[in-house]
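Section 5: illustrative case.
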């Protein structure tokens, strides 16, 4: 009987092992133990998203200090484990089928497991980077250039070159990304050193030659930088520190935060867009600084994420009476772009509507009548539809069939468009009035059916 039970137990174990083996092929698994006393028990697993780390999973240590993560990896790439007050670089290259087992100590970690993928190479370089991170820690102000520069020249730079020679796994995606990561880690930490407060500072002649040759290489042409944990800080550190360490006889620029100069060093459009989004997210502006900076940046901030950020940043600038109106640019029925600024010099009566909106359609006859009565005056009757993109032809046909006058435009993203977001429009129709300078008179004007509207417009025309 005992023999039979043992056979059943063995079969059960084998069956479960095979099931797990098949299951792990579609997942990556990390198990580990924190082998020192840790006050905060939370462990975060972070993924690289647009050059920064984003937490994708969280767990807590059990009573033995152990933890684990299992997750599907849509695209192989770098992930990090974050533990409060642990300065080790716990970075790993995850892909489905990996089984990593970690023993984490205060001074480092040991990596084990049957399916490590490329993580022995990653861990070897992690240890080198951790030495730089320790000196660059803002809490470690007693360490200065006398400790950092010898480490950089005598250890890190040679190890970086040696590591890049080693990276030849046959996995083209990994090899390219890991080599880029080695160079980025090296330069980013070198740049970051100068931005950390110190008790003593180097003179120009104390800097290694490395600092005087870094600008000779073309920087920021590869959008894969955004697949690295320090992609954004790399661009920021380089842009800010570039002007601090100069060749002899060069003058330091008066305006270190000149945005035109900063972004001129970033060639790839995607990187430029992300850099500027990060810049505006973290920078506090005074006076008219924001408007000046945004005038430089706006042509490069073309992604949907950047457009949303601009709307959020500018809500306070384009909502109150007397402030400039929101700067939009939308297509007319012929597909031509028309900007808000093109109406400067005329009063603007803005109607925000849609073809599916009954109350909007009821206002159309009143609007057409008012347009006819004020024809020839310095006033633009501007109608902007928030119909969905899929209904663009329906909108064009409606404009033609109803013989709508004035200027007819359509937003670029219905309820998510900048105009709608800026004025926090929750329902339509919505009417607004802007003066000849493009400044807000009211963002909640009376409807065309109101007898008061004509008098209000005439008063603005003839103050």
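Designed sequence:
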């Amino acid at each position: 009987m005992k023999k039979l039970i043992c056979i059943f137990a063995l079969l059960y174990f084998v069956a479960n092992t095979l099931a797990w083996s098949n299951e792990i092929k579609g997942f990556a698994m990390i198990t580990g133990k924190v082998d020192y006393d840790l006050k905060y028990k939370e462990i975060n697993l972070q993924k690289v998203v647009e050059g920064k780390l984003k937490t994708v999973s969280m767990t807590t240590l059990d009573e033995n200090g152990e933890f684990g993560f299992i997750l599907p990896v849509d695209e192989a790439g770098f992930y990090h484990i974050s533990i409060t007050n642990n300065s080790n670089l716990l970075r790993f290259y995850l892909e489905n089928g990996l089984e990593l087992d970690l023993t984490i100590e205060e001074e480092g970690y040991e990596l084990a497991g049957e399916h490590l993928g490329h993580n022995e190479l990653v861990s070897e370089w992690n240890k080198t980077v951790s030495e730089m991170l320790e000196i660059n820690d803002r809490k470690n102000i007693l360490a200065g250039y006398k400790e950092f520069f010898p480490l950089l020249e005598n250890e890190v730079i040679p190890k970086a070159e040696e590591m890049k020679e080693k990276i030849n796994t046959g996995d083209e995606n990994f090899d390219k990304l890991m080599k880029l990561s080695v160079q980025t880690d090296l330069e980013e930490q070198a740049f970051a050193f100068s931005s950390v407060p110190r008790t003593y500072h180097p003179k120009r002649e104390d800097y290694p030659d490395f600092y005087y040759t870094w600008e000779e290489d073309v920087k920021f042409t590869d959008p894969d930088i955004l697949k690295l944990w320090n992609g954004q800080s790399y661009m920021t550190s380089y842009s800010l520190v570039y002007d601090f360490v100069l060749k002899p006889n060069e003058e330091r620029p008066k305006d270190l935060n000149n945005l035109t100069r900063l972004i001129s060093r970033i060639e790839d459009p995607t990187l430029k867009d992300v850099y500027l989004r990060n810049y505006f997210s973290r920078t506090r502006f005074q006076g008219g600084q924001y408007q000046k900076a945004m005038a430089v940046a706006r042509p490069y901030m073309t992604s949907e994420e950047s457009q949303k950020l601009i709307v959020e940043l500018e809500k306070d600038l384009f909502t109150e009476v007397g402030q400039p109106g929101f700067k939009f640019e939308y297509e007319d029925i012929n597909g031509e772009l028309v900007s808000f600024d093109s109406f400067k010099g005329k009063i603007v009566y803005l109607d925000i509507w849609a073809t599916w909106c009954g109350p909007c359609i009821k206002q159309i006859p009143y609007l057409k009548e008012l347009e006819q009565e004020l024809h020839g005056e310095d006033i633009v009757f501007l109608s902007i539809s928030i119909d969905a993109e899929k209904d663009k032809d329906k909108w064009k046909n409606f404009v033609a069939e109803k013989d709508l006058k004035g200027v007819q435009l359509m937003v670029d993203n219905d309820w998510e468009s900048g105009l709608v977001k800026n004025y926090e429009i929750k329902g339509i129709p919505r009417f607004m009035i802007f003066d000849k300078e493009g400044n807000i008179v009211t963002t909640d004007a009376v409807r065309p059916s109101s007898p008061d509207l004509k008098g209000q417009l005439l008063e603005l025309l003839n103050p």
